[in-house]
């Protein structure tokens, strides 16, 4: 069972349906105990960084999310769910993030020929191995909608890059923590392949925990 964090800022049902489409089981929860003790966790998100952190804190979900990541179980962040993992974001002021990964979230500063938000299909490039990218070819297209992007303090966290005016981090990987700037649930076959790999990884992890 994959638990999807509900903090009222994401297309939760679309993520749930995509996971179910690739053979996974998914539930939506805002219960701190369920989140901290989940077998697998997805943190989705659409909206502003500061508003999201305020809602996560209001629901007492920040520490359960951190506690889950500390267990080493499979975790997937999507779009804003990637950005919230970092130490701070600069959308409408300066806001503290979850602080799970070192780095910051900044707005695109591009020539007028580039529209912000960056919206639509774009190509990603592999820069480091990641367990959920084995079936994803280099130069694959995914669907993006964002005005801000992450700048990891540790370059080794970046497993995919994308170019929009300049290269930016499109995905991070650390052990079994994965997070994408794009929306796999909106990325048709390529996104489903990524979610299937995450689901299979989660299933394998759960089987190992039951056999140990």
From TrEMBL:
<keyword id="KW-0028">Amino-acid biosynthesis</keyword>
<dbReference type="GO" id="GO:0005737">
    <property type="term" value="C:cytoplasm"/>
</dbReference>
<feature type="domain" description="Glutamine amidotransferase">
    <location>
        <begin position="4"/>
        <end position="189"/>
    </location>
</feature>
<dbReference type="GO" id="GO:0004359">
    <property type="term" value="F:glutaminase activity"/>
</dbReference>
<dbReference type="InterPro" id="IPR017926">
    <property type="entry name" value="GATASE"/>
</dbReference>
<comment type="pathway">
    <text>Amino-acid biosynthesis; L-histidine biosynthesis; L-histidine from 5-phospho-alpha-D-ribose 1-diphosphate: step 5/9.</text>
</comment>
<dbReference type="InterPro" id="IPR010139">
    <property type="entry name" value="Imidazole-glycPsynth_HisH"/>
</dbReference>
<dbReference type="GO" id="GO:0000107">
    <property type="term" value="F:imidazoleglycerol-phosphate synthase activity"/>
</dbReference>
<comment type="function">
    <text>IGPS catalyzes the conversion of PRFAR and glutamine to IGP, AICAR and glutamate. The HisH subunit catalyzes the hydrolysis of glutamine to glutamate and ammonia as part of the synthesis of IGP and AICAR. The resulting ammonia molecule is channeled to the active site of HisF.</text>
</comment>
<feature type="active site">
    <location>
        <position position="183"/>
    </location>
</feature>
<dbReference type="Pfam" id="PF00117">
    <property type="entry name" value="GATase"/>
</dbReference>
<dbReference type="GO" id="GO:0000105">
    <property type="term" value="P:L-histidine biosynthetic process"/>
</dbReference>
<dbReference type="GO" id="GO:0016829">
    <property type="term" value="F:lyase activity"/>
</dbReference>
<feature type="active site">
    <location>
        <position position="185"/>
    </location>
</feature>
<keyword id="KW-0456">Lyase</keyword>
<keyword id="KW-0378">Hydrolase</keyword>
<feature type="active site" description="Nucleophile">
    <location>
        <position position="79"/>
    </location>
</feature>
<keyword id="KW-0368">Histidine biosynthesis</keyword>
<keyword id="KW-0315">Glutamine amidotransferase</keyword>
<dbReference type="InterPro" id="IPR029062">
    <property type="entry name" value="Class_I_gatase-like"/>
</dbReference>
<protein>
    <recommendedName>
        <fullName>Imidazole glycerol phosphate synthase subunit HisH</fullName>
        <ecNumber>4.3.2.10</ecNumber>
        <ecNumber>3.5.1.2</ecNumber>
    </recommendedName>
</protein>
<comment type="subunit">
    <text>Heterodimer of HisH and HisF.</text>
</comment>
<keyword id="KW-0963">Cytoplasm</keyword>
């Amino acid at each position: 069972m994959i638990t999807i964090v509900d903090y009222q800022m994401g297309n939760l049902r679309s993520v749930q349906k995509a996971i179910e489409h690739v053979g996974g089981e998914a539930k939506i929860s805002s219960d701190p105990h369920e989140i901290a003790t989940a077998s697998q966790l997805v943190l989705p998100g659409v909206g502003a960084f500061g508003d999201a952190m305020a809602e996560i804190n209001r629901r007492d979900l920040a520490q359960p999310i951190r506690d889950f990541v500390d267990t080493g179980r499979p975790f997937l962040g999507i779009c804003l769910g990637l950005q919230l993992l970092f130490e701070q974001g600069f959308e409408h002021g300066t806001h503290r993030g979850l602080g799970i990964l070192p780095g910051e979230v900044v707005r695109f500063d591009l020539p007028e020929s580039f529209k912000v938000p960056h919206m639509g299909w774009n190509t990603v490039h592999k820069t480091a191995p990641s367990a959920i990218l084995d079936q994803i070819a280099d130069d694959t297209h995914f669907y993006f909608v964002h005005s801000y992007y992450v700048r990891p303090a540790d370059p080794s966290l970046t497993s995919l890059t994308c170019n929009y005016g300049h290269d930016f981090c499109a995905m991070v990987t650390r052990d079994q923590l994965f997070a994408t700037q794009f929306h796999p649930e909106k990325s048709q076959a390529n996104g489903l392949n990524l979610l299937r790999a995450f689901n299979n990884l989660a299933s394998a992890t759960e089987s190992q925990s039951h056999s140990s």
